Structures are given as structure tokens and as C-alpha cells.
Amino acid sequence: MRSEYRLRRSSSGFTLIELLIAISILAMIAVLGWRGLDGIIRSRQALNQEMEQSRGIQLAFAQIENDCAHLMDASLLPGQSVLSAGGNKLMLIRAVSDDAQPTRYQVVVYSVVDAQLSRRELPLTRELRRLRADWELAMSDGDGTTPIVLQKDVQSIQMRTWKTGETGWRSGGDDIQNPSQVLTNPAFPAITGPKSAKLAGLELTLQLISRPAPMVKVFLLGAA
Description:
This protein has three helices and ten strands; from the N terminus they run ααββββαββββββ. By secondary structure, the protein is of the alpha+beta class.
């Protein structure tokens, strides 16, 4: 009788309580697995976004470096600035030498507007009068050229310049001599006496919204 009872009980399947326990365990495993998968996906998305931002900054810095390396010789344009850094805008005149073509020049503008770092370039020209007119138009943002966005989510941009013959960075600046301008770095005293009007270096600091630390890059101006 006992063996027959045991046989009937074993062939009757799981009880309701056993099924509920099994379902609860499977549900807990599913929730834990989903949380782990969701964490992996979020981490991957954040990593991809950071890599995309880093790539965008590197490309932007590479473009600025190339433009600065081909900065127009200021002696070719007397009384006219060939680089101006201030506020949210960097303007410069670069030389372009193509194969079988005479050297031409164009005004290039980098600016931060609506949290976007963009670059725009005006048409190439060999006429100094046209170049001066393009500079004035770009200064007032009246050139009408279409900007190309290089980096988004830009919180701020800061620029400093280095002039030959001096001992510190200036906040912003251009290549026109300004005797009243003094160093903003408290580690150096104010400059007195004659100063060179030739710019030798540009320091650019880019702060992104999603990054705690800014990106800083120093560029040499003109051909080495």
C-alpha cells in the first residue's frame, strides 16, 4: 500500500506552491539579468558618446592646428590683423597653396554659438583689398557663409595668445601692437617698454557640458 501511495504521489507532478516558488525564482533571475544587461547597454552608450566627443575634439583641434600652421605672414598685410582671438570667436587669415596655383588667402572663422563649435571659411582671393573687406564682414558675421559644426555641447571657449619677446600668455589678443594691454597672468608682471607685434602661439581651452575638465591645446602660429 505504501509503495502504491508513493507511486501515485510521484506521478501527480508539482504542487501549486512548488510552481509558485519556481516562477518566483525565475522572475528574480530575469530581473537581475535585465538590470545587468541594461547597465551594460548604458555603459556602452556612454562610452560611445565619450569616444565620439573625443574624436570630434581631435578633428577640431587638427583643423585649427592646420589653419594656424598656414597663417598668413602679417608683413604682407600692413596695418591689418591676420589673427584675432577674443570672446567666443577666433578669426585668422590662412595661406592656401595648391598645385600649379599661385598662393591665395582666405579668412577663416571659428566660433561657439548655441553650444556648438563651428568653422566657416570665406572665398579664396589674391586681392588684398578683397581680403580686408572679407575680414570686416567676418568680424561682424555679415559674410553669409555657411558654418560647419565641428563639436556640439560646448559650454565655453577661452583663448590666450603668446607674442615673441614677452614672458607670458595674454588673454585673447591679435597681432596688432597694443601698448596698453597687460598680462592677465598674476605670475608675471605687467609689460612695459617696446613689444613685438608678432604672435607666436595660441592656447585654446574648450569646455564641454558633459566633461568636468576642459580640453586644452597649444598651437604654433605660422610655418616652423
